[in-house]
Amino acid sequence: MATRRSASKTDPGEQAIAFLERHCTHIKGQWAGQPLRLEPWQRSIVSDLFGTVDRKSGLRRYRTALIGVGRKNGKSLTAAGLALKLLLADKEPGAEVYSAAGDREQARIVFGTAKAMIDADPALSARCKIYQNSIVVPKTQSVYKVLSADGFRAHGLNPHGVVVDELHVLAGAKGRDLWEALTTGQGARRQPLTLAITTAGFDRQSICYELFDHGRKVETRQVDDPAFYFRWFGADETDDWTAPEVWAEANPNLGVSVSMDFLENEFRQAQLIAARQNTFRRLYLNQWTSADVRWLDLGLWDSNAGMTVREDDLAGRQCYGGLDLASTSDFAALVWVFPDEQTGQVTVLPRFWLPQAAVERRSQMRHMLEVWQREGWLTVTDGDVIDYDHILAQFDRDATMFDVVEVAFDPWNAGQLTQRLHEGGMTVWPCRQTITALTGPSKELERLLGERQLRHGGNPILRWMADNVTVTSDSNGNIKPDRKKSTEKIDGIVALVMALAAEGRERETAVAPFAMHL
After folding, report:
1. φ and ψ at 450, to 5 degrees?
2. Buried b (16+ CB within 10 A) or exposed e, 252-279
3. Does the residue 53 lie in any domain?
4. How far apart are CA 211 and CA 183, in angstroms?
5. Exposure of 405 by Cβ count < 10 A (0-12 exposed, 13-18 middle, 19+ buried)?
6. Is residue 240 in some structural domain?
7. What 3-state class would DSSP assign to 69?
């Protein structure tokens, strides 16, 4: 880390640097337990924020600061140190300091880091009382608390300091309400500071993008706002995201807390999986991106086909299922996955059904659908909707041939069928279609494809759906298939993801799966 420099007794910027380096400690990783030593870019920010003062009043110039930097560059560590500076060493009696974020878990990251720093420093520990969600300084009647958009209920705050972690997550009406409550409640303070440290996002209607756009205009002197501080370490939207020199622009701690090996590995994943490109660009290059992207590269998909999947070769093997009945009047999909513990390969066996009326409605695809039916890839049932008896009969045949452990299903439209499966002795599990539930198996699918370990045999319907699928991602890089934004049907891919979710659930818990009680 950077060499510690002595602080001037009169310069408030140097005094802030001295406070951080004297009292703040690394709490994780290879430097855990060591005093914080600010890098030059960090020292510059701290010096600017606390050392730029009005000549007449002697008060700080900057009241709002937006700092953008890629992940793993020490954002939370720096933010925690600055929160403690505002709480304990800013000459503000009755200071109220808040860690804020889009959700409570995110907000507690900076707060938890600050608590650990206090625990590690005897001087700070002697001054503070630590509680689960607050830190109190009895001598000055100051307090440090956690706030989140999902738990915020009332105004009436009087903040001296606000630290917002990952501002791009502070979205929607709740996020805006919290931001406005925090920033408009500072009128009674002499020199309040709201500090937002974030990576880029994708919501161009968010507070974060509004401030980013404002900061760019301040930076280029299109707007005069002397109280707004803006530092953005990131690639421009037109920059070549594949260039290592661009990576360095977004990662000022490159070679310190971020290694080139790490970025190169993330970059390789982004090259293999289309959806990872936006994640890489947003989280590690600090570029604003779009929310949804085409997910699977068809060339990569085809390279995983392997030999034709023969049911007889899978007889007796352990498998996990994913059942997707998104619409009874269109495609239904059942996908089995057969993991091989010795090779790490996963073999995929899909089943598809479609009602005759849907074949007739899809005039442009009718010839292809009839080919798929004739070649045995697709089962077409009579009438306007899928006859569940066909699916149940297939389940019976598969349960006889394979060692079925568990079947995951989308509970939205599968109650009747899964009830009958359960009554027949099948272990079934409702897999909610949330980004939290699906991001793990979605990334497992990416991993298997990237490592050429997903043997799907070139099933043409599954291939078509793989070419259709689009994913939605959130601010933390979580992903899930998105039906609404995909170009066409993706039921088979959703079923495959759910099957991987069932397999992953079994692997992680290492206990026998439970039978769902309906």
Report:
1. -60, -30
2. bbbebbbeeeebeebbebbebbbbbbbb
3. yes
4. 13
5. middle
6. no
7. coil
Domain count within the chain = 3
Q: What is the pTM of this model?
A: 0.66
Please list the alpha-helical segments (H only) found in 206-273. Answer: 207-219, 244-250, 260-272
For residues 187 and 129, membership in a common domain is answered with: yes
* 103-114 pLDDT, tens digit each: 888 888 999 999
Based on the domain organization, do 336 and 280 belong to the same domain?
A: no
Report yes or no on 336 lying in a domain: yes
Cα 315 to Cα 428: distance, rounded to the nearest angstrom: 21
Report angle CA 205, 63, 132 to the nearest 5 degrees.
80
Tokens for 187? 């009128």
Q: What residue numbers bound the domain in which 114 lies?
A: 12-233
Same domain, 336 and 418: yes
**Residue among 338, 349, 305 nearest 503 (CA):** 338
Residue 66 shares a structural domain with residue 106 = yes
Which domain CATH number covers 391? 3.30.420.240
Helix (H, G, I), strand (E, B) or coil at 395: helix
Average pLDDT, the chain: 88
467-494 residue pLDDT tens: 889 888 876 778 899 988 887 899 999 9
Do 325 and 190 belong together in one domain?
Answer: no
CA 120 from chain centre, in angstroms, equals 30
Label residue 9 by pLDDT band (50, 70, 90).
Answer: low
Considering the domain architecture, whether residues 69 and 203 belong to the same structural domain is answered as yes
- Angle subtended at Cα 291 by Cα 290 and Cα 295, rounded to the nearest 5 degrees: 100
- Element housing 82 (H / E): helix 75-88
Identify residue 513 by its one-letter amino acid code: P
**At residue 1, does pLDDT exceed 60?**
no
Ranges of H-type helices in 284-430: 298-303, 356-361, 366-374, 388-401, 415-423
CA dist 427 and 28 (Å) reads: 42
Is 433 within 8 Å of 483 (Cβ atoms)? no
What percent of the chain is helix, strand and coil (3-state, nearest 5)? 40, 20, 40
The CATH number of whichever domain residue 215 belongs to comes to 3.40.50.300
475 φ/ψ angles, rounded to the nearest 5 degrees: -65, -20
Q: With contact defined as beta carbons under 8 Å apart, do 46 and 17 qualify? A: yes
Instruction: State whether 229 and 266 are in the same domain.
Output: no
DSSP codes of every residue in 433-488: -SHHHHHHHHHHHHHHHHTT-EE-TT-HHHHHHHHH-EEEE-TTS-EEEETTTSSS
**In terms of domains, do 27 and 147 share one?**
yes
Paired tokens of 61: 């110039």
Residue 74 is assigned to a structural domain of this protein: yes
